[in-house]
Amino acid sequence: MFHLASSLYDRFSRREQYNILILGLDNAGKTSLLEHLKLVYPGPGEKKKPGERDTTQILKSKRILPTVGQNVTTIRYSTQSQPRHAVNLKFWDLGGQRSLRNMWARYYSSCHGIIFIIDSTDTERFQECYDTLVDVTRHQSWRDEAGGPGPGHDSVNVPILMMANKQDLPAAVDLVSLKTGYFIDLVSELDASDSKLLPVSVLENQGIRESLDWLVSRIVYNKTNRLPEYR
Ligand code: GDP
Ligand code: MG
């Protein structure tokens, strides 16, 4: 009885926590996104929000080095439609160089959602980007967990937010062209699972809030399949 009461207490007094992987090729903007989140959102224990800052200037003046290990940060977040329901989001920025990508799969079983960042100006690597995302979604570990292949169980079972980043640059390919051109097969394939491709500029703080709102609402919706942690 005591155990039941204390676990119920834990459940209601602690906050739900979700793990989100930030994936994508190197130079897509993964670490910039993480740095942006750190600047804008409070940590789990922080009372006050730092408020909207001019993250553009701060990010531009930072020298962000290619990620070798992993960068992790946890923020407190509530969507604009549910401002009273705050959750903790723990973001993992894993290195995107080819040699580091095979590490990603280790994190699949404990993640609740994926952000896949695309550099919308890097047309030369769109194919590589496409192949990389397909590899993620078709990875064996999603299947193992679902108890073997079968209808509805042969693919990724967490929401995927694809961010078409660097939309501030003139050379950026716009969303419609991405959806109907380079990424058309992927978009239609992923349509069956929970995914969305949205335009953003991490550097100019455009589209980030909207895309995170989408991701968080889908992650919370999926919480009976992927139970949150409580912190
Ligand atoms: P990562 O390798 O995926 O972690 O990418 P980084 O975060 O290190 O960013 C790679 C480069 O892209 C850096 O020079 C960033 O300043 C730049 N970058 C990231 N996001 C944007 C963006 O939205 N717009 C522009 N113009 N540059 C960006
Ligand atoms: Mg990086």
UniProtKB/TrEMBL annotation:
Keywords: GTP-binding, Magnesium, Metal-binding, Nucleotide-binding. One of its GO terms (molecular function) is GTP binding. The lineage of its organism: Eukaryota, Fungi, Dikarya, Ascomycota, Saccharomycotina. One of its GO terms (biological process) is Golgi to plasma membrane protein transport. The gene is Piso0_000640. Pfam families: Arf (PF00025). Gene3D superfamilies: P-loop containing nucleotide triphosphate hydrolases. Mg(2+) binds at residues 31, 67. GTP binds at residues 24-31, 96, 165-168. It comes from Pichia sorbitophila (strain ATCC MYA-4447 / BCRC 22081 / CBS 7064 / NBRC 10061 / NRRL Y-12695). This is Piso0_000640 protein. It comes from the Eukaryota. GO terms for cellular component: Golgi apparatus. InterPro entries: P-loop_NTPase, Small_GTPase_ARF, Small_GTPase_ARF/SAR.
